[in-house]
Amino acid sequence: MPNISAYNMKGDKVGTVKLPPEIFDVKINTDLIHQAVVAQLANKRQVIAHAKGRSEVRGGGRKPWRQKGTGRARHGSIRSPIWRGGGVTFGPTKERVFKKKINKKMKQKALFMVLTSKVKDDELILLDKLEQKEPKTKLMADILKNVLKKEQESTLVVIPKKDENIIRANRNIPHTKTLRADSLNVLDLLSFKYLLMPKEAIKVIQDTYVQKA
Questions:
Q1: I need a labelling partner for 10 at 20 to 30 A (CA). Which of 30, 55, 104, 205 fits?
Q2: Residue pair 198/5 in contact by the 8 Å Cβ criterion
């Protein structure tokens, strides 16, 4: 069972916390993590580009000239793809589907693998508590500076429940994002170097993911 140091908001070590091994000490499979990331990115993708085919382009209901006798090639519609202003033959269409399916247990396993890698790389920072009485960005910036001992490091702040003061205080700090513990995902965890959360969040992660696995 992995142990990790816990700090207060001033950056002082206040003890150690035992992390649940089923979440923070699993065997890492990079292929599964990659599969989870690809699926998440694909499912976020929106179909925007759309080129009209010959059936969607306006006009062209009448045959441009008679079939025979003109000396010109035969044509049935001015909206044919070979005409200027006609439909597009192989253009992008809004009917494209980018969604990728991934097994629920596979997705949760990938999440635990990324959390495990954060622990192994010393990129998980645990606080005994994280609270703010008012939504001041300076207070939140001071907490990050005290705990990380560095500036401008990308940090994902995970909170056990919705806290408007922390969310608003963290909103204007560059390279940071606030996320609830019951909304963790592989992409957000990999997008930030450090993972900062109070120890209360561990229980929420257990209740949200382990029992439903």
A1: 205
A2: no
**Contact of 159 with 138, CB cutoff 8 Å:** no
Contact 19, 195 (CB under 8 A): no
pLDDT of residue 159: 95
Placement of tokens 């997705």 in the chain = 107
CB atoms within 10 A of CB 16: 11
Digit-coded pLDDT (tens) for 29-80: 999 999 999 999 999 998 899 999 998 999 888 899 999 999 999 999 999 9
pLDDT beyond 70 at 11 = yes
Question: Is the sign of the CA dihedral 194, 198, 199, 200 positive or negative?
Answer: negative
pLDDT band at 213 (very low <50, low <70, confident <90, very high): very low
Q: How many CB atoms lie within 10 A of CB 172?
A: 11
Domains of the chain with CATH codes:
3-28+103-210 (3.40.1370.10), 46-97 (no CATH)
| Cβ pair 169, 137 in contact under 8 A | yes
Q: Alpha-carbon dihedral of residues 136, 142, 147, 148, nearest 10 degrees?
A: 110
Q: Identify the H or E element spanning 8.
A: none
Which residues pair with residue 125 across a beta bridge?
196
- Half-sphere CA count of 120, side-chain side, radius 13 A: 13
